Amino acid sequence: MLTVAQARERILAGIQALPPLELRLQDALGAVLADDVRAPHALPRFANSAMDGYAVRSRDIEKASEAHPVVLRLIGEIKAGEGDRLKIEAGSCARIMTGAPIPTGADAVVPIELARGEGAEVAVLATPPVHGHVRPAGDDVHSGDLVVAEGSELGAAEIAMLASLGISPVMVRPRPRVAIVVTGDELVDVEVDPEPGRIRDSNSFALRALVTEAGGDPVPYRTVGDDLEEVTDVLREAAAAAALVVSAGGVSVGRYDFVKEAVERLGSIEFWRVAMQPGKPVVSGRIGEKPFLGLPGNPVSVHIGFEQFVRPVLRKMQGRTELLRPVIPASLTQPLHKRPGRLHFVRVALKQGPDGVLATPIGKQGSHIQSSLIGCDGVARFDIDQTELHPGDLVDVEVWRVPAG
Ligand code: AMP
Ligand code: MG
Q1: Choice from 199, 208, 300, 370 to test ligand 1 binding pocket (greatest atom count within 8 A of CB)
Q2: d(Cα 137, Cα 405) in Å, to the nearest integer?
Q3: Which of 35, 70, 79, 203 could be stapled to 61 by a disulfide with Cβ–Cβ 3.0 to 4.6 Å?
Q4: Is 210 in a helix, a strand, or coil?
Q5: In sequence order, what are the residues at sequence separation of 6 or more whose Cβ sits closer than 8 angstroms to the Cβ of residue 237?
């Protein structure tokens, strides 16, 4: 049986980044940049004032003080948005607003609070340093600087930077469309009160949320009964409309588990089963050209299988550089034991302790125990051949979110 790392490597080897497309900057939040962006010009583009005040030649007012003000001739005013039209000569100054270009000849700004203007004269009460309160061209970014790297997700900061540099439309990778197919004769819709023996479908909700959080676009399909023809039809339809097909349920060894057979009909199976718990009977394959991942139906298996395999695939399709969750060492607070042979993903809550992060396993760990996904900050890896872990042992935790408390 493949290890989790081997399985993931094999899956990712068959995945390419989606072809880039152009988006207007206002539509690009959350998209992933397809190329490095270099600054086409400096920021600020021109030297400008950091204060409302007076643009001066600093050597004119070297000796200015409260007791001995230096009086300058006021030759005009420069508002933000105006071009450079004034020239500051010896003994003169111009009123200037924040963001307005520093006029020719000036090399500093005296803040309004350190001067007294009367008519055409300004008494300067203190000496600003040379270049004081001037924001020089290129202070923030030089022309040609790499400002946002390929593979970066565009958040508020990146989008604002690209706006300052006039970069719209922008080349990004699209959100991958992910077809979601859930199987099981027992499933009813959320709004239906299940008859005896039937249950509400939660996996399609989980998968839609997980896909969206991972940067994909979920495309839900109708719930499929445990019937080979029906499973085959829906998977064929799903693959035609998406970059990736993800299913839940029907991949185990039961008499009514038809997903593998359907995928074999429509394409091929690359592997089945991974040495992990929960989620062992995961299937990887192709439906036509499209990658397919079949997760077992237990709700926690869906969640863990998504984290281990689907999320990295979606991130690779988006051209992201970091495919996996961050891993941190944490100190286990409770003992754990298991049989060797499978890597267990233990749902944990994380907390900052006096000497580092503490990881506390949450409740029961069965693959049907949905309640221990609530309040879960990540999973501790209980390694394949380990059988005992003791309180205080350091474990590797794959962090899903920054803990609440
Ligand atoms: P399976 O992998 O099809 O054998 O399903 C394993 C377990 O997960 C069974 O107890 C199913 O009833 C349950 N299950 C399957 N699909 C879903 C679903 N969509 N929502 C909630 N539970 C499910
Ligand atoms: Mg089933």
Answers
A1: 199
A2: 44
A3: 70
A4: helix
A5: 221
Name the token pair of 252: 């185990």
Find the angle CA(281)-CA(285)-CA(288) to the nearest 5 degrees: 150
The helices-and-strands tally (H runs, E runs) of the chain is: 7, 29
Helix axes 259-266, 228-241, angle to 10 degrees: 50
Phi and psi at residue 59, to the nearest 5°: -70, -20
The yes-or-no verdict on residue 62 having pLDDT over 80 is yes
Q: Which amino acid is at 374?
A: I
**Scanning the structure block, which residue is given the tokens 């990540």?**
378
Give 60's DSSP letter: G
What whole-number distance in Å separates Cα of residue 363 and Cα of residue 366? 9
- 144 or 321, which is more confident: 144
Burial class (CB in 10 A: 0-12, 13-18, 19+), 325: middle
- Residue nearest (by alpha carbon) to ligand 1 atom 17: 297
Which residue owns the Cα nearest ligand 1 atom 16?
297
Residue 85 is encoded by which pair of tokens? 């039209």
